[in-house]
Amino acid sequence: MRSPITLSFPLCLTLAITGILFGNLPGSDTNRVSAEERSPREVVATTSQGKQLTLTLQNLENSRGYQYCELVFNYGEKGSDIYSTSPLAPADLKWWNNLDLEQLAKEFGAKSVYKNGPQWWSMDEVGVLGSAPINVGGTEMIFGAHLPPGTLEAPKYKVFNPAKTQNLLWKKGKPVYQLVDPQGHTYILQGHKIPEKQLASLGDKFQKLPQGWQYQVVKLDQDLVMNLTPDAPIPSVQDEFNQIYIRIPE
Fold it and tell me: Which segment of 11-15, 160-164, 205-209 scores lowest on mean pLDDT?
């Protein structure tokens, strides 16, 4: 049996091929844009097996601390398909720990299946594109994306530009967790694999943070809204704990 690998891309990062940020920054309410105005309500996606699925915008309120799991079905040169338990139901860890990945690969005609997670959302509300519920290994998941080969490979602390269709809200007064690069760009944590109680002191645990990079925890004085659409790349960074941060527009 092939040893599982650690994957770092949450579904929030893999819902399209290009993306752009919209919305207000902390300290400004004037640019807040509703999800309905900026994000498509429905798209048609094609799986690695050539099946077409309709993806609709699915919203999850009170998402901060919501634990979810993802499965990555590897089809080799055909790319990969991503399935997630979010936003259908919080992760069932008993189910997760007892998954037969080889059997799943055979059932879906994949070369292999990898686990990504469990992890938690860091934002207070999230909207993602997903299919109707699909039975995967005995539980319901959504199909969220088909990715070309090599899309899931990203070096640590190197800015890359994935894309997605997604609506994100971090509420004022709540803590957010950020990386700041040497040029002063700020990246906000999306999904985290480190438990929330440990995020405040995560800065003390970094062993590979490059010179000039900083980790910080701040409380927002205004809502931070990001409505993402597939129109331009989104600068993103992965840390040594396989967690993804996206750049806050300036």
Answer: 11-15
